[in-house]
């Protein structure tokens, strides 16, 4: 295989690995972040209608994005970002946020360019940067001693400043963060924005969990592109999989000024060319409805209850979970339990509950520091969380 693959883990992504392990051991899978919740009737009905229609959605659609969907996205995001987005040249739809990240990085990163990643990060970031020949430069979010919540994880701005060199081109930020669930405060975002401005950097803001920010969050959701002077240098990434709990649809998007959207599209045209037509149609209709039917508010409440339920279970069994302000993951500090092997593998095999080891979100040289953390997904129906709770409580 090509030399560029040497930058990738030969075992593949941890999500596929632990889902396979969960299936093998018939474990309750709280590892990979896919919802097992009922998908709202209006969303499934829109999908069924788009497929059933004789002519709407069976052929390629516009390469940059199905017109109805980019229009709906412009309507949804313009007020949130605070400017009138042009759906035809500032929004591109992609095969999930994953392709949005990949195409954008391919489009912007030259060999030896440096991209700042905040650790823990989503695992596709360093892979996409390395495949483009770029260099991930790592800064770390760190928890306060005895921290109990995702907001106790902070970025040391001095560390970020120190990481910037003449080769730095992009800062990537994930808000709300996967795996911690941190929702960035305005002050924290402004510090990053000031650095981006001072050093003339682009910012990729992965905001796929933006609709899942809980009522007790320390900070509201603030879109990076909405900060003063930031629109021109921000690439916002979103995902319908997270927005509507349909990760299998694989529809995402890039929102950025026209030159950047165009650059991402030059890559995208030779990757998928266009994105699955009937689901873009259904996604557009669903977003139009969700803007007025209370879907987002209801869903956030549902997820918050599930979060609280899993928090209680993890607390009861002594796992020291940290309450996330957003997203659908909880990280837990399992330091009190000394097991020789990988705790996530151990838990899957002996207890029948699967999590993801925190090291998946860290560079190799930091794995030792985070071996006592695992990540649990709570985007699961009550019965699934109950079964996981039963197994954990019986064992610990
Ligand atoms: N970014 C983050 C932070 C994610 O958690 C995910 C999904 N796991 C993605 C991007 C990719 O999203 P999609 O499934 O739409 O490709
Ligand atoms: N984003 C999901 C997670 O963090 C999984 C994505 C994947 O399986 N690649 O669990």
Automatic annotation (TrEMBL):
Keyword Transmembrane helix tagged: no
The cofactor required is: pyridoxal 5'-phosphate
Under Gene3D superfamilies, the record lists: Aspartate Aminotransferase, domain 1 (3.90.1150.10), Type I PLP-dependent aspartate aminotransferase-like (Major domain) (3.40.640.10)
What are the GO cellular component annotations? Answer: mitochondrion
Could you list this entry's UniProt keywords, alphabetically sorted. Answer: Aminotransferase, Pyridoxal phosphate, Transferase
- Per UniProt, what is one GO molecular function of this protein? kynurenine-oxoglutarate transaminase activity
The UniProt entry, under Pfam families, shows:
Aminotran_1_2
The protein's superkingdom reads Eukaryota
Q: Where is the Aminotransferase class I/classII large domain?
A: 27-391
Is Transferase given among the entry's keywords?
yes
Q: Return the similarity comment.
A: Belongs to the class-I pyridoxal-phosphate-dependent aminotransferase family.
The family database entries (PANTHER family) matched by this protein are listed as:
FI04487P
Protein's name in the database: Kynurenine--oxoglutarate transaminase 3
What is the organism of origin for this protein? Boothiomyces macroporosus
